[in-house]
Predict the structure.
Amino acid sequence: MKAATARIGADAARYELENGPPTLSQFNYFQQRMSALGLHDALHTEFEAAAARTAQDMGLMPDHARTGVKDAARANVLAVDGKNHTSPTRYVKGDQWVDKDTGEIKERRYDPNKSTWGEGGKNRVRQGAKSVVAWSRHPASGTRVIAGLTLMRPKHDGGEAAAIVDLITRVQDLNPGLTHVAVDGALRGTHLARLTPRGLVVVNKIQTAPTTAENAVTINGKRFRKKRVHTLTHHSTAFGACEHPIYGIGGGLFEEHVTSDGTVTHTRLPHHTTARGRKNGDYTDWYVQTRIACGRTDPTSGKLTPWTKTFYVPINPTRQDQIDNVNRGEHVRQIPEIDTDDFNRIYGMRADSESGNNGLEHAWYLDRIPSYGYDNQLLTLISYALMNNAVARATHHARAAARPPGQAA
Ligand SMILES: [Zn+2]
């Protein structure tokens, strides 16, 4: 509207756009004016603010629905994933063609935002544009909302993982009721360490350790690196201090035992995720509450009595971790991957973003993003997201209106 106003005046622009979709030439002009006026950042910001209003209107990411760590409601889980887009052309900068009528040598049109990107979860790369998209929805179909998105530039600072973390923090700032994030394997412990102190529960897979890796343990058929994350010491045995080394493996806690013949075994410890310490009203300091058992010999009577202790292992990085070179966020998780019932249920909601991404892809002819360069591709993505969100909101309200009075959503 602002772009068209400069050309034909506010009233004419409003009349034209309120009486039907823009024509191709209007949209081309809009694209040019948006770039000339440098309005992309403002539009992007306003889109995400509008998406938050849509989500709130639909009861997504509600502030009152704070629940336990394990029982995340669908409307409170943000699904975030990377999305590769096929470029509108296969040509690259410098490709030429000959005009047979005039004999002129001309440059091929190319996509300056095209780059080579890894494809999440698959050992291959793709040429094209790359975005990361955050989805929120109800259990009912047709309610999927794009809560935020980022179109990456070819040399995006920090890569896909950094783009995902930034996107999640923006969405959380706009939707304070958000509690859980299900996100793909691009994130590592260092990225989780930026999200969990914000009060979020992050559910994502841990990078598989190579089969040859030392200091790795196989659980449920998957090889995880192990890392010592805690040491519990008590001084009350007849033989002096007793030390229990605690390891993080697959996101859960284990006590390591070494027998006299050098055999190493690991005993799983109970895992109860707790959050303590409020900051701005949110619990931000995460711990695993666990319990250990040991035999204690009374020094005077010589009698062996069982000794148990409940203790807390931090999930957020500690100062000591820097000294000990511990990437805590990678090894100690709020919902460990090895706790498959809880993990799979919430992580499974991430697959939903792939359905959303599929819709995004099929909206375009031959799956190609129909625009060249960062500015225009961002406009294309935001346009799609606005359409998607408008349809989702209409679907949600139409369903609510059709429901007999008194029946809850
Ligand atoms: Zn002990």
Remarks:
- The first strand starts at residue 77 and ends at 85.
- The chain has two domains: 51-205+343-371+380-402, 216-334.
- Residues 51-205+343-371+380-402 form one domain.
- The radius of gyration is 27 Å.
